[in-house]
């Protein structure tokens, strides 16, 4: 049966188009129930008499129909294996897909789990359930009517099916169909049409067999709160926001909450280098980190500067009216901001007027013990300091108090200090290594679930062998003395090298990269999963693979003595490392040996080693030094960062030893040839595909980024020239102190902090001069050398293969827009992987120092307004030595510290206490210990040992120091202060 659907659409030019589409209706779509005697069922029954749910609200057997908002709001309830026999209307499924792709994906997984008995009914194409749009009816109202029509039809259809004499004789109660909706208007109309209806909360609370399911209900509001006094300004409507953005009255950007100060934030807005500063609760106006917001710029006379103070929210439950304490905190921030504004350049400042798009996710954290006995209302404290506390209702508080749990935000009313949310699930005991690793992965949005059966189905069947056809299509390089050099324990070996003499006196150098793209074909489930993950994530003692282990550690890993597919980049170079020509091959290689950096270094240094591999490594090492010097002469930067290596117990997975990573010549050797391969491939694919080549750029930092570096170096007697990369590189080379061999490394660490983030992009989206990679001083660059670990490299392999005729192109490969979206995801995944890795190092560092106290030599890396940033070379650790402390401290040290005054000098970034002055790079001795008082945010505590400051250094508490004269006298109390006391 055919019907016509008409609708109008307005074009960009303002013309109105009348569109008519044919819509076909059928009478052979089955209802999916095993109770039905009429429908032709062309598949196994999904709605069955099994799995009946006992409800105090509906005591007869029933099926459930969900409306769209129930799916969107209560997805955490639906994911629990409780609800069965659920009818999913195609109207609802399409609306969910349109409104939230993430929830649509989760809902689809439930639907495809056949044990859950979720049945998709295509009501939009059934002749009895299709609802045509009526005149002046909104799309939302039409969809609500379609849901009610389908529910009514289902109920009548099943009642008729069960009215036969045979069914009546069975004595079974009649199965009915219930509509779950949280829309008051839709519910009212359903009741008037004699449809059985309930809200999601009513229905879940009626399931007495599953009392804990109530905890997972989305909490839109709490009782007794509607009359509470508003604490925030109202948000503008979406219509007002869009109009204001169009007129440039408001600015749109991504909100970033401060990790150090919960009353400050920043909105990244295009054309504003430092973004828009937000200060105070009202200006933040219920934005959560990551939200896309509309911000109103304040008049320039009201602009401020970041306060640069550390401010953590205290444990406060009452939130109906602002307390005096909260007002004092607001005032503290304002005073600090005014002080900063006097010395620093004022920053554009604004206030949030509305939320364009929420970016809420699931948050990990702990329950805060309630001050009220026998209550279901609790405060959830997220692990991420940038996220506000969340109010939830749970009946499991006693069980969850020592657990890491997941909570999601549902809403944030004006009259509530905190957003409202609900409990999702427990992760495990607080402090457990597996639990804490799970928290790191979830908090950094790292996809880490097991690969699905669909993904694994695209892996090659084992045993896998190279066929004669494969050899025929590839260049055979198995006779070359190829070897790999990697960190110890590396199983995902994706690069190998060779170097050999040529008859003409030149050298042939080859970089051989695992040919992952041979096994991962475009567009299949394996490819989509790899693209979504973007990168392999490395935690301490744990690796989250981008591709299944069969590829990462087996078929694609270039292990020694085994034939493997590779993509080879081969150069002919002269003895001075000048590239004379190049070529690319899909090849078959057989690595002669897989070595660690240390093993390769030993072989190079041992003059008794005269084998082909030793000769190859020595030539590679010599050429690499020439290449590196050439890069440095062109302005490439040698930067540094403190890195730690842990020795982990194989059974408990806890750290046994921690040490700074050692760098050898062989590290640099491998790096140089990987850089050369990446640059060579970038030049080639950009020439072949000018609009869609996947490249990587490193933007030049703005001059203001270098201010801390320039000031710190100047005090030490060095001038750092930031005019160009070359001048900066030369300046860093000159920053050498004979009496402090670690000084140059610290200068380079400080320089690293001034850099911008390197990003992937598509060649057609930028001008060629913007391709520049500042850190490498390369005019063009890409990633080609790690396809096991990075999806960007797989994209580059496909472009390179297409350019040399080794593989065919496909539509998406040459489509700029889709590749730009892929690059955006890769940039995000790469950043999150870095953060996750650092969080894992911090976790293991805390575990290592648990129950220990160690005095270590270190250096001042940064001087802050209320703290010193200290670097410990022995461990590659960095931490904060606070110069001001809480006067409410419990021990004598805290009490004494409150008497000490440190004066911060804005001009030269120094801290003075009496005759002791702290500058960047000054040597210090600190005592390291772990503060476990905050079970969620354990932190490594740095306390000063040397230089000695009486009343501040730790020895004063440990023992009475005889004959010491105070280097920093206690402050004198004024008469005014005494009166206050």
UniProtKB/TrEMBL annotation:
Its cofactor is Mn(2+); Mg(2+). Pfam families: OB_Dis3, PIN_4, RNB, Rrp44_CSD1, Rrp44_S1. Residues 62-188 form the PIN domain. SMART domains: PINc, RNB. It is found in: Cytoplasm; Nucleus, Nucleolus; Nucleus, Nucleoplasm. One of its GO terms (cellular component) is nuclear lamina. Coiled coil: none annotated. Keywords: Acetylation, Cytoplasm, Endonuclease, Exonuclease, Exosome, Hydrolase, Magnesium, Manganese, Nuclease, Nucleus, Phosphoprotein, RNA-binding, rRNA processing. One of its GO terms (biological process) is rRNA catabolic process. Its main location: cytoplasm. InterPro entries: Dis3_CSD2, NA-bd_OB-fold, PIN-like_dom_sf, PIN_dom, RNase_II/R, RNase_II/R_CS, RNR_Ribonuclease, Rrp44_CSD1. Residues 474-806 form the RNB domain. GO terms for molecular function: 3'-5'-RNA exonuclease activity; RNA binding; RNA endonuclease activity. PANTHER family: EXOSOME COMPLEX EXONUCLEASE RRP44 (PTHR23355:SF35), RIBONUCLEASE (PTHR23355). Belongs to the RNR ribonuclease family. Component of the RNA exosome complex; within the complex interacts with EXOSC4, EXOSC7 and EXOSC9 of the exosome core complex (Exo-9). The catalytically inactive RNA exosome core complex (Exo-9) associates with the catalytic subunit EXOSC10/RRP6. Exo-9 may associate with DIS3 to form the nucleolar exosome complex, or DIS3L to form the cytoplasmic exosome complex. Exo-9 is formed by a hexameric base ring consisting of the heterodimers EXOSC4-EXOSC9, EXOSC5-EXOSC8 and EXOSC6-EXOSC7, and a cap ring consisting of EXOSC1, EXOSC2 and EXOSC3; DIS3 associates with the base ring of Exo-9. This is Exosome complex exonuclease RRP44. It comes from Drosophila willistoni (Fruit fly). The gene is Dwil\GK22331.
């Amino acid at each position: 049966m055919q019907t016509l659907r008409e609708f109008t659409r307005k074009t960009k030019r303002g013309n109105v188009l009348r569109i008519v589409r044919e819509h076909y209706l059928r009478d052979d779509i089955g209802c999916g129930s095993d109770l039905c005697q009429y429908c032709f069922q062309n598949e196994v029954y999904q709605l069955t008499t099994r799995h009946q749910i006992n409800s105090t609200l509906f005591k007869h057997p029933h099926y459930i129909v969900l409306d769209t908002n129930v799916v969107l709001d209560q997805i955490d309830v639906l994911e629990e294996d409780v609800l069965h026999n659920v009818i999913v209307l195609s109207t609802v499924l399409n609306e969910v897909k349109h409104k939230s792709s993430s929830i649509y994906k989760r809902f689809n997984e439930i639907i495809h789990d056949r044990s859950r008995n979720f049945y998709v009914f295509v009501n939009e194409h059934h002749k009895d359930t299709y609802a045509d749009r009526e005149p002046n009816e909104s799309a939302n109202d039409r969809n609500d009517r379609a849901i009610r029509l389908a529910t009514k039809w289902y109920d009548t259809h099943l009642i008729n099916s069960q009215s036969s004499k045979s069914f009546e004789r069975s004595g079974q109660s009649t199965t009915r169909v219930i509509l779950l909706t949280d829309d008051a208007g839709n519910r009212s109309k359903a009741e008037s049409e004699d449809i059985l209806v309930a809200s999601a909360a009513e229905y879940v609370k009626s399931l007495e067999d599953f009392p804990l399911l109530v905890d997972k209900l989305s909490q839109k509001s709490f009782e007794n709160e509607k009359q509470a006094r508003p604490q925030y300004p109202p948000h503008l409507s979406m219509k007002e926001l869009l109009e204001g953005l169009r007129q440039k009255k408001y600015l749109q950007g991504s909100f970033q909450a401060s990790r150090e100060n919960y009353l400050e934030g920043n909105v990244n807005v295009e054309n504003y280098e430092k973004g828009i500063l937000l200060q105070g609760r009202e200006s933040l106006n219920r934005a959560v980190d990551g939200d896309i917001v509309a911000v109103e710029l304040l008049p320039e006379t009201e602009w401020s500067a970041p306060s640069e103070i550390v401010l953590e929210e205290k444990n406060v439950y009452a939130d109906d009216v602002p307390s005096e304490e909260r007002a004092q905190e607001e005032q503290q921030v304002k005073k600090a901001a005014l002080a900063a504004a006097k010395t620093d350049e004022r920053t554009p400042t604004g206030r949030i007027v509305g939320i364009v798009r929420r970016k809420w996710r699931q948050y990990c954290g702990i329950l805060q013990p309630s001050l009220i006995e026998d209550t279901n209302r609790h405060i959830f404290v997220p692990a991420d300091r940038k996220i506000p506390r969340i109010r939830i209702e749970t009946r499991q508080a006693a069980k969850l108090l020592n657990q890491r749990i997941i909570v999601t935000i549902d809403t944030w009313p004006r009259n509530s200090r905190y957003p409202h949310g609900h409990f999702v699930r427990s992760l495990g005991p607080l402090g457990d290594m597996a639990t804490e690793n799970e928290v790191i992965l979830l908090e950094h949005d790292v996809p880490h679930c097991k690969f699905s059966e669909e993904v694994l189905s695209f892996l090659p069947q084992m045993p896998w062998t190279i066929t004669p056809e494969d050899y025929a299509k590839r260049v055979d390089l198995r006779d070359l003395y190829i070897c790999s050099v990697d960190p110890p324990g590396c199983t995902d070996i994706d690069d190998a090298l060779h170097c050999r003499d040529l008859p003409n006196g030149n050298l042939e150098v080859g970089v051989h990269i695992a040919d992952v793209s041979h096994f991962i074909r475009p567009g299949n489930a394996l490819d989509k999963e790899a693209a979504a993950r973007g990168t392999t994530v490395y935690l301490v003692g744990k690796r989250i693979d981008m591709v299944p282990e069969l590829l990462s550690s087996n078929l694609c890993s270039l292990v020694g003595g085994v034939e493997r597919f590779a993509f080879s980049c081969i150069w002919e170079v002269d003895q001075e490392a000048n590239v004379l020509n190049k070529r690319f091959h899909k090849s078959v290689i057989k690595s002669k040996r897989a070595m660690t950096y240390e093993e390769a270094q030993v072989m190079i240094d041992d003059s008794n080693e005269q084998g082909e591999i030793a000769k190859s490594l020595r030539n590679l090492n010599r050429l690499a030094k020439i290449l590196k010097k050439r890069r440095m002469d062109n302005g490439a930067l040698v930067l540094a960062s403190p890195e730690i290596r842990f020795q982990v117990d194989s059974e408990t997975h806890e750290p046994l030893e921690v040490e700074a990573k050692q760098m050898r010549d062989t590290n640099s050797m491998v790096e140089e040839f990987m850089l050369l391969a990446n640059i060579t491939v970038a030049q080639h694919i950009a020439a072949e595909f000018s609009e869609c080549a996947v490249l990587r750029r490193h933007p030049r930092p703005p001059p203001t980024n270098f201010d801390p570096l320039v000031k710190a170096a100047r005090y030490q007697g060095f001038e750092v020239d930031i005019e160009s990369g070359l001048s900066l590189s030369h300046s860093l080379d000159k920053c050498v102190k004979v009496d402090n061999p670690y000084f140059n490394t610290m200068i380079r660490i400080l320089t690293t902090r001034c850099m911008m983030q390197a990003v992937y992009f598509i060649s057609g989206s930028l001008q060629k001069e913007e391709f520049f990679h500042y850190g490498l001083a390369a005019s063009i660059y890409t990633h080609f050398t790690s396809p096991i670990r990075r999806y960007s490299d797989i994209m580059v392999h496909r472009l390179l293969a297409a350019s040399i005729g080794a593989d065919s192109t496909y539509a998406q490969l040459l489509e700029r827009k889709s590749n730009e979206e892929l690059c955006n995801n890769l940039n995000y995944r790469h950043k999150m992987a870095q953060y996750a890795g650092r969080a894992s190092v911090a976790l293991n560092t805390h575990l290592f120092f648990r129950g220990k106290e160690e005095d270590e030599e270190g250096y001042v890396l940064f001087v802050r307004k209320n703290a010193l940033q200290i670097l410990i070379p022995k461990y590659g650790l960095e931490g904060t030595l606070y110069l001001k402390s809480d006067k409410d401290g419990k021990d004598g040290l805290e009490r004494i510290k409150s008497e000490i005054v440190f004066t911060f000098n804005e001009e030269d970034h120094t801290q003075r206490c009496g005759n002791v002055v702290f500058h960047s790079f000054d040597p210090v001795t600190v005592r390291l210990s772990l503060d476990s008082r905050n079970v969620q945010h354990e932190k490594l505590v740095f306390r000063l040992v040397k230089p000695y400051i009486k009343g501040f250094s730790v020895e004063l508490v440990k023992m009475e120091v005889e004959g010491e004269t105070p280097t920093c006298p206690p402050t004198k109390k004024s008469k005014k202060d005494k009166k206050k006391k």
